[in-house]
Specification:
It contains 15 helices and 17 strands. The protein is globular and about 60 Å long. The strands form four sheets. Strands 4-12-11-10-7-5-6 form a seven-stranded mixed beta sheet. The chain has a four-stranded mixed beta sheet with strand order 1-2-3-15. Helix content is about 40%, strand content about 15%. By secondary structure, the chain is an alpha/beta fold.
Length: about 450
């Protein structure tokens, strides 16, 4: 089954050539997806060459409502037609007041009642930096507890807390970070897997912090993701999250939850922390909260509001259009029940993908929450580890990604070896689109698996 149609145009090739010669070597998605989008609607993207694609990347989770949703466009047009200032630093505006109201209405009640919000620069990494500075200021401490597999951004403090070695290796350290084992059932750091692995992770964290010879000074914060996205779509067990909340609360360690990718309905609840019921001290939000425009905030318990004026600033923290689009998006997600819809559609997609494991041994694991789904591809001919997991197959995953693109489906990779197919469709995905995504993905995996079996990889 193939969705993409059309033939290459000289215009597309010329644009891609200029991008290649002008832009930095650090560009990422542009290397994988040789597309020049000219139009987009919902989940569909049209390239300059006339080909159409179903977008299961959604701006790395930014496009909760898909491309150019009417609710977002209407909010933008109203704001533009009103004559409102588009840039006001951190001054109060009617649009900002409305956005703050929509944001607080969406938050878990136990958190919202005592929360303060700080508007940051437009990227999630800046909000992570703000959260780290906030807790360091409040506690007078410097160290941070972070987890294996974590991704928190590319600025110095956020990168230090990130687990990916490849992006950190060329750079000096960005701060004092103690790395802790994240529960990863399929590739358990303790070699046992399942619930027992999560129990050992919690026990390790608690004993390390209480060990006077453990080498860990009292930290300024613990930072974690409820579902690790870039790390390979790894959901943390609810019980483990409750243990992290207990451990940090009992020791006076602020708990920062990074909801940059998991927020705004993505995991089947408005905020991923709601699955476990924990109330963090700090939440970091970005991506979907701006309604497809740049927006990042840090929310925190009022007790931590000890900053001096100007302690964390940013020129573009007052984006009026993002405020309007974000408020409209948050309210539409709630009013249309899109978080619940994500839980339902995501469960059905995950079930069908899980069934593939019995048909295609290259599918090692299927996991996720809501419409944040990961399919880990493996080499079934190689020896498994202690948990029964076969080695990751990054070449196979890259072939599947390319096969998806040729069929008209955009999916990206993640995980330890870029061997996890990551599905992040918009929350507005229809049942028909979901089935098409699964058909295309199944075709691409089947073709790649045959190539592997035939020794072509």
């Amino acid at each position: 089954m193939t969705l993409a149609t059309g033939t290459p145009h000289e215009t597309r090739d010329a644009v891609l050539h200029r991008q290649h010669t002008r832009e930095s070597a650090a560009r990422t998605y542009a290397r994988t997806f040789p597309i020049v989008p000219v139009r987009a609607d919902g989940m569909t993207v049209e390239g300059a060459d006339g080909r159409h694609y179903l977008d299961c990347l959604s701006g790395a989770g930014t496009l909760a409502l898909g491309h150019n949703h009417p609710v977002v466009l209407d909010a933008l047009r109203r704001t533009l037609d009103s004559g409102a200032p588009l840039h006001v630093l951190d001054l109060a505006t009617a649009e900002k007041d409305d956005y703050t109201g929509a944001l607080f209405e969406s938050l878990p009640r136990g958190f919202a009642e005592t929360a303060k919000v700080h508007f940051c620069g437009p990227a999630g990494t800046d909000a992570v930096e703000a959260a780290l500075k906030l807790t360091q200021t409040a506690t007078g401490r410097r160290g941070v507890l972070a987890f294996t597999g974590a991704y928190h951004g590319m600025t110095a403090g956020a990168l230090a807390a990130t687990g990916n070695v490849a992006v950190k290796q060329p750079l000096p350290t960005g701060g004092e970070v103690t790395r802790l084992p994240y529960p990863y059932a399929y590739r358990c750091p303790f070699g046992v897997g399942g619930e027992r692995g999560a129990e050992l992770s919690a026990a390790y964290v608690e004993r390390l912090l209480d060990d006077p010879a453990g080498g860990v000074l009292p930290p300024a914060a613990m930072i974690l993701e409820v579902v690790q996205g870039e790390g390979g779509v790894i959901p943390a067990p609810d019980g483990w999250l409750r243990e992290m909340r207990r451990i940090t609360a009992e020791r006076g360690i602020p708990l920062i939850v990074d909801e940059v990718q998991t927020g705004a309905g993505r995991t089947g609840r408005m905020w991923a922390v709601e699955h476990s019921g924990i109330v963090p001290d700090v939440m970091v939000l970005s991506k979907a909260i701006g309604g497809s425009l740049p927006m990042a905030v840090v929310l925190y318990h009022e007790d931590y509001d000890g900053w001096q004026p100007g302690a964390h600033t940013g020129t573009f923290r007052g984006n009026t259009l993002a405020m309007a689009a974000g408020a409209a998006t948050l309210r539409h997600i709630a009013e249309a029940g899109l978080a619940e819809r994500a839980a339902d559609v995501g469960a059905r997609m995950t079930a069908r993908l899980t069934a593939l494991r019995g048909e295609l041994p290259v599918v090692g694991d299927v996991r996720g929450r809501g419409l944040m789904i990961g399919v880990e591809l493996v080499d079934p001919t190689a020896s498994p580890d202690a948990c029964g997991a076969h080695p990751a197959a990054p070449e196979l995953a890259a072939r599947v990604r390319a096969g998806c693109l040729s069929r008209g489906l955009i999916v990206e990779l993640g995980g330890r070896h870029d061997a996890v197919l990551r599905l992040l469709p918009p929350l507005t995905i229809t049942d028909e689109q979901a089935e098409t995504v699964l058909d295309l993905l199944t075709d691409a995996i089947t073709e790649a698996a045959a190539a592997l079996a035939g020794g072509l990889l």
